[in-house]
UniProtKB/TrEMBL annotation:
Annotated Alanyl-transfer RNA synthetases family profile domain residues: 4-713
GO MF, one annotated term: alanine-tRNA ligase activity
Disordered: region residues: 844-863
Protein name: Alanine--tRNA ligase
Family, per entry: Belongs to the class-II aminoacyl-tRNA synthetase family.
InterPro entries the UniProt entry points to: aa-tRNA-synth_II/BPL/LPL, Ala-tRNA-lgiase_IIc, Ala-tRNA-ligase_IIc_anticod-bd, Ala-tRNA-synth_IIc_core, Ala-tRNA-synth_IIc_N, Ala-tRNA_ligase, Ala_tRNA_ligase_euk/bac, DHHA1_dom
Top-level taxonomy: Bacteria, Bacillati, Bacillota, Bacilli, Lactobacillales
Segments passing through the bilayer: none
Biological role: Catalyzes the attachment of alanine to tRNA(Ala) in a two-step reaction: alanine is first activated by ATP to form Ala-AMP and then transferred to the acceptor end of tRNA(Ala). Also edits incorrectly charged Ser-tRNA(Ala) and Gly-tRNA(Ala) via its editing domain.
Amino acid sequence: MKNLSSSEIRQMYLDFFKSKGHTIMPSASLVPVDDPTLLWINSGVATMKNYFNGSVVPKNPRMTSSQKSIRTNDIENVGRTARHHTLFEMLGNFSVGDYFKDEAIEWAWELLTSDKWFGWDPDKLYMTVYPKDDAAKKRWEEVGVAPDHIVEQEDNFWDIGEGPSGPDSEIFYDRGQSFNNLADDDPENYPGGENERYLEIWNIVFSQFNHEPDGSYKPLPRKNIDTGMGLERVVSVFQNAKTNFETDLFLPMIHATESYSDGKKYGQDPKLDVSFKVIADHSRAITFAIGDGALPSNEGRGYVIRRLIRRAVVNGQKLGIQGAFLYKLVPVVGEAMKAYYPEVLQNSDYIAQVVKSEEDRFNETLNDGLNLLNSLIEETKKNGQSEIDGAEAFKLYDTYGFPVELTREYAFDENIKVDEEGFKAEMKKQRDRARKARNADNSMGVQSDVLVGVKSPSEYVGYTQLEVENAKITDIVADGALTDATEGEVAQVIFDKTPFYAEMGGQVADKGNVLDENGNLIATVEDVQHAPNGQNIHTLKLHRGIKVGDQMTLKVDAHFHSKVEKNHTATHLLDQALRNVFGEHTQQAGSLVEPNYLRFDFTHFGQVTEEDLAKVEAIVNEKIFEEIPVTTTVTDQATGKKMGAIALFSDKYGDQVRVVSIGDFSIEFCGGTHVKNTNELGLFKITSETGIGAGTRRIEAVTAGEAYEYLEKHDQLLTNAAATLKSQKVEDVPSKIQQLQEDLKNMSNKADGLEAKLASQQAGAIFDNVQDVNGKKLITGVVQVSSMDQLRQLADTWRQKSLSDVLVLGAEVGEKANLIVAVSDDTIKAGVKAGDMIKAISPQINGGGGGRPNLAQAGGKKPAGLQDAMTEAAKWLSNLN
């Protein structure tokens, strides 16, 4: 067996398929782009959906990748088994309608057994096949697999419902008898069974059918290959590791964790080994997830990160680690993965800052929460029960931030369960959003072939001209099908050349007209998108019939186009200004460029102050006033990156890229249209800034004419305010407002004083009216006050003077009724509680309330019932035993 590191194994796989004509695709961000069906990228094929469903035609139908992925549906098993992980890498090779079963099997065997590549012993390899897939079985035998190493498996058919499906072939590596955890005659002791000896390392899916809505299976127009090889498993074979955790992918984090513990070592105690594994696994997942822009929160993927951090912290406690430590593992992860993911180490300071902030937040309540949980477990055992009450589990979550999964896992170690239904009843809003159905998420979608075969060349010339004559129609789609001509009202059309920009990168498509040779209107352009093979396809509202071969004049709405250009250039200035103010970790998380405004989403951990926004706005306007030329260079990606161009995770770039430079201030990869000089923007004004999710914020802004209109509108508001305040100059408005505030405050203080005096006078009369009820002294009364605060002040006065055992006061405030009940300390000992009394009397005002034994309050919608509430209070007290 070759002695290879994980980085060498990953690169060997990619190099092998590159030698077979595959394009190496970069590992995409863990945060899915434009795919609401996925919480995380959870496999290699998840990034290939658009290619497999036909919405985009890849430049090369052969692709290979090592894709970082996250799955959390088996999170409780992480650390307890040899191969469960949250973050893992999936090596894969893909064919979109190109090669199929013969080549996929041949190349798999070559990679695994050739001395030039993996060089594994063929006798150690076993293949499973679908019983009806004779072609796969035959091909495995042809490449050299012994017949007794091919196992038929009835469930070797990849089918996730409607969409592509087909047989698959799994490859197992025999780790030898020393790994065997079953008896020789155990029915699971075979390649493909549930055992430790035969390790599944690769799955090859032969996607050849479409599962139709009626349940039938029809051959796909383009057969595909989708494979997945778990890097962690392959590394464990090469490095002869008992589990995936004893490899160079996890051991650096495990050894670092040992140094933070109170002398505990990995391998000494199986129970503690679980904690070491959990920490090593979770530190990788959170580091990569945060590095890709996700942040801890209470929902969605942010909840997954929070849960992983807290699970790791709790396991750190089990190892005797006090205080924050997980953040220290971030650079360790970065160092271990730098060969293929150098950006993790580059961003490790920012990632560590986010992790430490979350750790500190959790550690503030962790010890109290653990003490409470341990008490609950002991009390449950003491009472002879086997289940923690659901309400108590919710209290742990709500008060101490313990996800129920942690409570369940901690209790599981003590053979105690959690009342899951009771917990759900207490917490309807929070659910385990991290659990996702694995197979459904991997769906490639149903293929659509209407435009896949359309390869007519089409040239976009809109960077330099907005009107084109003699543009010829090459393809027409009407009513969902290709046609040579149409008389309909709407059609999708491809021209051999076009000045119309297709929507991309947040920039909206151009609008405009299609004219005949005499300048007569033929159609209006409603939308422009990219066809699967990259052409600009125009959605036309037709005014007359068209046919393939017609030549027309295409004319872009220049005013619309110009306004969009201005706002697009402004997003580039804004992007760099945000980095200057908040730091290089700030990344674009989405944008929308319309003619009337721009929207820019960005990642930022923390609040954005008015002062921050003012700095950003000032920087952008400074660059506008500097009249900086905006230039474009077409080059290859490598050269563009050397120029310092910023690339977005969410965008896919071709071999040739456009680098848009605004002097030396901003350099970005961008396919959009831009102004020639920043002075064309005129002015930039931020109109709003909000948070739209965990660690993601949104700025909306305007430029040029819209910016002037925005400022003019606010100037008019200020002028109107000056007139209302009878201020001769607008500049005097702030001082006028300040004077009004001071006058209002003085008047409010006087009013409060008068109200307090009135309340005191009323209290004097009410406090003298003491009833004797059931051996207790009771004071009741309805008073005239302006707030519940004043009722509480009266209660404080009553308590200081010890005027009775129980006080009940009511007041009509606005259109609502307020009640307050106060009980002396000695009377509480006799069984009288303010909270019980308030619940008994508040129905008289159509309300409800609660509080502590010594003080409770309630509000209601029926002021007319206040006197009845006083009567009910006396009745309740008289009936109290």
